Amino acid sequence: MENDTKRGSPGELAALVWAGESIYLLPYALRREYRTTLIEALGLANESELGAIYSVFGILSLLAYPAGGWLADAVAPRVLLPASLALTAMGGVILSTLPSSITTLYALFALWAVSTILLFWAALIKATRAWGGPSAQGRAFGVLDAGRGLLAATAASIGLQIFATLGGGAVGLRGVIFLYTGACLLGAAATWCALPRQAHAPTTRAASPGSRRLLRDVISRPSVWLVGGIIFCAYCAYYGTFYLAGFATAAHGQTAAGGSAVSVFAL
Question: H/E/C letters for each residue in the chain?
Answer without folding.
Answer: CHHHHCCCCHHHHHHHHHHHHHCCHHHHHHHHHCHHHHHHHCCCCCHHHHHHHHHHHHHHHHHHHHHHHHHHHHCCHHHHHHHHHHHHHHHHHHHHCCCCCHHHHHHHHHHHHHHHHHCCHHHHHHHHHHHHCCCCHHHHHHHHHHHHHHHHHHHHHHHHHHHHHCCCHHHHHHHHHHHHHHHHHHHHHHHHHHCCCCCCCCCCCCCCHHHHHHHHHHHCCHHHHHHHHHHHHHHHHHHHHHHHHHHHHHHHCCCHHHHHHHHHHHC
